[in-house]
Amino acid sequence: MLQRISMIQNTRLTEAGRTGYGLLNQQEIPVATVQSGETTLKEVANRLNLEVASLIKANPQIQDLNNLQTGQDVRLPETPAPAHSGASDQQPQSNPAALPSGDPMSTTFGKMSVQPNAFFSVDPKRPSVQTTAPAPARPSAAAQADIDALGQAAASGDLKKVQDLIQSGVDINGRDSTNKQTPLMQALASGKKDVAKFLLDHNADPTIVDINKQAPLHVAASAGDSDMIQTLRQHGAHPNMKDDFGHTPLMLAAEKGDAKAIDALTSGRGGADVNLKDVVGNTALMNAIRSGKPEAVKALLGKSNLALKDDLQRNALAIAAREGNAECTKALIDKIAGLDPKTRGAIFNNQDAFGRTALMDAIQKGNDDVAQQLTKNTNVLVNIQDNDGKTALHEAAERGVAKALVSRGADPNRPDLHGVTPLMAAAQNGHGGSVEAMLQGKQPANPDLQNADRRTALMYAAAHGDVRSVRALVHAGANLDLTDKDGKTAYDLARAGSINSPSMQKAYQEILDLVNTH
After folding, report:
1. Distance between CA atoms of residues 259 and 238, nearest Å
2. Structural domain of residue 406, as residue ranges?
3. Mean pLDDT, to the nearest integer, of 64-86?
4. Can you state the angle between helices 326-336 and 341-348, rounded to 10 degrees?
5. Which of 65, 162, 287, 337 has its CA at a distance of 20 to 30 angstroms from the CA of residue 328?
6. What would the pLDDT profile of 357-391 be if each residue is shown by its tens digit?
7. Angle at alpha carbon of residue 55, lines to 52 and 58, rounded to 5°
8. pTM for this model (two decimals)
9. Residue 114: which of 322, 255, 361, 312 has the closest Cα?
10. Which among 24, 55, 75 is the end of a domain?
11. What backbone phi and psi angles, to 5 degrees, belong to 15?
12. Strand partners, 5
């Protein structure tokens, strides 16, 4: 059942857990409610007669497309794209000679209309989708039963029965009544290579797609069968065909981190285009990085455009930083080092839709090995601010790992949109070591800066019972008489803390002595 919900849009994009500032006009967004029995976005799309891809683009907030909850709201696209009529009932016949030129190198992320920033061009002559000839009429019930029997025989590996059914005239390219798969697809899915090769040798079409628009090459890639991938390509399979989610066979192989399958798909003339994107902007390289398999990443690096971004404007390096695989990150950094200075700097310092850099994400997610590699790299700028005004040093200060960034010249006095400096962030979180590092750095932190609540780093440290930070701040000359918006000094906050936290009486008493005797 369709309904309309009112949504206040933020002027800035924010991640879950991050706060946006400013309001635009109220905008009504049409939604559909997930009904009982529906668990996947594809099921919702089928009910509404919409393309799955259009729903995916309109719902970037849905993380798991196969785990929807009854009653959950699904946003509808502003211009709904109807599903192809009869797509699940008719059998397309491929026409390899009628492939369109041009690769779709830009996608739309919800309402953002983000265009990827490509530093390298993609060969426009390489096909990325399939063109089909007019589909024949639906087979009769008896013919469909024979097609289903042929598919079952192929799936079970019964070569004799497959031969007999084909000899009797059953359509070798007929699609089963459930998933619209051909016998070739069913043989591949079950790992029955002898049957699959027999079907190919008897003119089975390797370009026909199933209900999800997956072709036999998708099935072989998902199974990691490099031998069958090569055989299918020899029989005319197109490595750049896309399924409902925009996945090419190469993307599926990369997702599994299968370097052999990747090589089988990309090698030789007419190999897969490594720079195609799925419906949310992911490339094969990005999928390989998420697999955590360095060999798969290295297999794709040679031809991959490292400047490409997904619909959240994250490049491959940013994804590696978030995933935290140090070996994959090193391979990327080594490859980026060989690019021209302008491109190199743009990749290292790319900001995603939330203004975040790879360095910020690596630190925030606790991927210390990756963060160390990026911090040491002189191409990486350390004072970039995200949409909330935070720098990489804010993230490091919150985690107590600020020393390396301070050595790189990170600014401890740069405030975020709330006026919070990295020094305050360290004091708030009880990281005395980071407080000391920032006070003693090449660009010493100013202990008397105040945020939007007029609080200083000393006030935060005193309120939280952080003796080490208080001692460092007092010795650095912090002003003990400053007051916050409620008129409270560091001494007042420490005294309140001692009353409210009896178990920390000793720490608070030491703090009271420090701020009362200077």
Report:
1. 19
2. 389-518
3. 72
4. 150
5. 65
6. 999 999 999 999 999 999 999 999 999 999 999 99
7. 155
8. 0.75
9. 312
10. 75
11. -80, 165
12. 29
Q: Which residues of 123-146 are buried (b: 16+ CB within 10 A; e: fewer)?
A: eeebbbbbebeeeeeebeeeebeb
For residue 447, give both structure tokens.
């202990």
User: CA angle, corner 422, sides to 421 and 423, nearest 5?
Assistant: 90
- CATH number of the domain to which 405 belongs: 1.25.40.20
Residue 399 has what pLDDT? 96
Which among 354, 355, 358 is positioned nearest to 344, based on CA atoms?
358
Q: Tell me the three state secondary structure of residue 84.
A: coil
**How is residue 137 annotated by DSSP?**
P
Distance between CA atoms of residues 333 and 327, nearest Å:
10
* Residues 396-406 pLDDT 10s: 999 999 999 99
Q: Which residues of 338-360 are buried (b: 16+ CB within 10 A; e: fewer)?
A: ebeeeebebbbbbbbbbbbbbbb
Q: What is the DSSP letter of 315?
A: B
Does residue 252 or residue 61 have the better pLDDT?
252
d(CA 109, CA 239): 25
pLDDT tens digits, residue range 155-214? 999 999 999 999 999 999 999 999 999 999 999 999 999 999 999 999 999 999 999 999
Strands (E), 225-351: none
For the chain, the domain total comes to: 2
d(CA 248, CA 83): 20
Integer-rounded Cα radius of gyration of the chain: 29
- Given 25, 42, 75, the domain boundary residue is 75
CA 512 to chain centre: 48
Q: What is the enclosing helix (H) or strand (E) of 7?
A: strand 2-10
